[in-house]
Amino acid sequence: MIQNNLKGDFLRTSRKHAENIVIQCAVPILLIGVWELCSDLGLAKSTLLPPPSLIFSTFIDLLLSGELFHHLGISIWRVLQGYVIGAFSGILIGVLCGLFKRIDTSLSLVLGFLRPIPVIAWVPVFILWMGIDEASKITVIAIGSFWPVLVNVIDGIRHVDKKYLEVARILEKNNWQILTKVIFPSALPNIFTGLRVGIGIAWMCVVGAELIAASSGIGYLIMYARELLQSDVMYVGVFSIGLTGFLIDKLLRLIERKLLKWNINK
Length: 266
Known about the structure:
With 266 residues, the protein is an all-alpha fold. It is 83% helix and 0% strand. It is built from ten helices and no strands. Helix 5 packs across helix 6. The longest helix is centred in the first third of the chain and has 39 residues, at 2-40. The chain is flat.
């Protein structure tokens, strides 16, 4: 009896998972089909919007030649460096601001003034200071990923359930135990939200920086293809960014599920 129930639950879960996959894939497939049809009927200019079949063919050619891996690898390395710096700084300052009121008060004016400034506005400033080498691009990426991590860390720490803190004090836990056993676990969902948002902004920043000043990277590939009127190569670059960002977000979600099994909302 129990075995039959378990088998039935497994089949229902598998069926639901398969239905979700079909639903998720249906809209993209439909859009691609309509796009291809419009191209075949001449409703879309191939110079502006090449058909998906041509974009896919170009994607395969760039993969086989290694050109796409070359530019994408450079951008990924830039994102990784800037993201690690920005995320670490955001977590560190966010923890300090969330735990210590005086630090939060002393930094509130500076952070409140700098946060609304668009990251892309810093690009010419850092190019002026650091040139067009890697340092300026990595700094822009670090700043872009810093803000969402900072805001979510502070928000997560401030919204720790007071009941948990009261129970910890009743049990006579010291400050370190409260910090590591109560505050950090409660803030982790917010921290992961900030990390996921930060990696998306990091990709926006690297492409923006490469479009303005770079001789390599996926942003450079897109800009160079535009100048040569190679719209198929340009779209390959754009969609490669989306695919890479999607895979990175899935990886962060997987890590989040492994670390936050207790979080019923995930």
